[in-house]
Structures are given as C-alpha cells and as structure tokens.
Task: structure prediction
Amino acid sequence: MSEIILINVSGRDKPGLTSEITGMMAHYGVRILDIGQAVIHDHLTWGILVKISDEATSSALLKDLLFRFHELDLHARFEPVSEEDYQLWVEGKGKARYIVTLLSRLITAEQIARVSGITAAHGLNIDNITRLSSRPPLQARETQAQACIEFSVRGTPPDLDQLRADFLQIAGELNVDIAFQEDSIFRRNRRLVVFDMDSTLIEAEVIDELAKEAGVGEQVAEITELAMRGELDFTESFKRRVALLKGLDEAVLAQIAQRLKLTEGAERLISTLKSLGYKTAILSGGFTYFANFLKQRLGIDYVYANELEIENGRVTGRVTGQVVDGQRKAKLLLEIAEKEGIGRQQVIAVGDGANDLPMLSQAGLGVAFRAKPLVKSTARHSISTLGLDGILYLIGFRDRETI
Result:
C-alpha cells in the first residue's frame, strides 16, 4: 500500500542539496506531490510532500535520507499524511486567494503580528510570506528606507468591507500601508498607468505656485484645499482659481516648470514601467504647459490637461476647451485603454484628490497616493508612507526586478 509523507528539512543551505535529495528519491521511484523552499540568511527551510509506492520502499528510502541528512548536519522531520487529509488539502486549493501587501519604511514584528492577526480573524490562512524589498542595511535612515512584505492568503472572508476597514485602521495606527487585492491573472499583467499630476507626479500644486507669483497665493490655496477635500465642485473651484491669475506674465510658467520637484520614486517607477512595455498617461486638472514638460522629461505617452489661455504674453484668467475634471479623467482613462487594446482590469490609476476618485474607480488597480482622508478612505488602495515606486510592490515586483 502506498504512503504519503511530508518531509521537512532545515539547516545551513548548501549548493546542490535539492538535486542530491531528489536524486535519491528518484532511485526509489518517488512521486512528488508538493515542494517548497525558503532561504533566510543562508539558513534553509525545505519541504517536500511525496508519495511512496509501498511500505518496504518507504522504510528503505527514509533510512537512506536520515543517514544523508545526518552527514550534512541537517535536521529532518517525517510526518505521514492520510489520503483523506491530502484530499482535503487539494480541495482547499480551490478557495479564493488574495494578496496582502505591507509597505513601510521599516518592518517590525508588531506590524506583522497585527496584519496576520486580522487575516486570521477573518478566516484567511497565510500560505506564503515573501519579502519584495531588498535586504535593509542596519544603519539605514528611516526617512530613506523602504520595505515590503507580501502575504499570500487563502479563504473566503465573510465581510470584505469590514476586512478592508480593519486593515485601514491599523495602517493609520502603525503608520504603514496595507493593500488587499484578489490574486488574479491581472495582478502582474497591467499594461497602462495613468497619473494625476499635481501632488502626485510632482510635489507641488502648480496653480498654487502660479498664484504666489501673481500675488494671490492665499486666496487660491484656500479654494484648492476645499476642492481637494471634496467640499467644493472641482470645475467651479478651478474657474475661480484661474480667474485670479489674470495678468500673470507668461515667462513665469517656464520659471516654475524648471523648479518643479518630482515626487519620491516617480522616475524609478516610470523608467521601470517603460522598460516593461507599459503605456503611461498624465490626466490632470492642471495645465498642459507643465504636463508636457513632464512628458518630455519622463517619456510619458499621453497627456490630457487644461490649456491656459494666454494673450499678448499675459494669462487671461481663462482656459480653452473642456475642463479636465473628475468625470473627464475617468472617460479619458477608458478611451486610452480602448485605443491601446487594453482591458480596464489592466489599468492602474494614481491620484490624490477627490477629483481623482472617478478614474480610480474605473481602473483595475486604483491607488490613492498621499491622499486626503476622504480620498484615502474611499479608494480601494492607498500609499502614504513610501514614494510612488511603492506601486511596483502592489503589482508584485521585487526590488531586484526593477530599474
């Protein structure tokens, strides 16, 4: 009668170990049902689930393995598995699978304890834990460090909304970001990323910078803040702010463009996306002059923003054409995706303001980046602790796989 045995091995890693041990098993005609390996700081944890044809063969194989493990100074444990338990395990693999991504400047035991506690409380079992970020140097400064741990979990949570709310709560308490997404074929198969510009790709709100030069900084900043919090209609607030810029010298635009500071991680994110064949777009409620400046600097494929009207070298206080508001952004996202032959689930949208919520909801992966509370609580995913390149972790890329 055949036997199913789980073999767990631990000890210092050695080159060729897997080849040698499976070679010994091959001599006995063993069937491999499952196998997994992890190495942390040169210490190996190796597991293999095997089916052995009969009891006599099993006894001989385990004796040979024990002897060799002893020679190699490896610890081994053998555990028989019943056919009933194996069948239950096989059936369990059909359950829904999710990815929980923990992003922080530094990973702590408390963070992992709280995240894993919530997954357990909602009936999810952790199958794998993977570090996506590089090994952190001991002397790394917290303000420059970035770390990411990915949990692959399995199960059917009874209340997804409550699960997300629980993650959001501890994210605020621990100053971390926690993303929860279905582990689908689309996760590492996105093809288009669309960005808001102001306070997303760049650290400034350009209209506030223009207003400072025009001497109306405080008035415009107050209106901007109301709009970003969703307390004022974007189109109306935009027209009011632009009107205050009337008479501004056109030369000021070039001066501001030159001093724009890119958001942390923006260049790394976009250069990596370009190398992987992604299309990129800026969908901005700001101005085309600055969006086109970034297009040239970063190699963006599409730009849609507002055209600031200028006559006789002066800003008129008006824009030409249709205002790019929240609904317009969402529509443009779908138009670009259709033009590129890309499904909506393959689109990533990134923004920080209330007027970005429509496009975030249309994308397969919508990310509220360093967003206002209303936006952060409404969007399905958010990043506040790391730079824009933290998005690479959400789509499953390790640091060693990026530029």
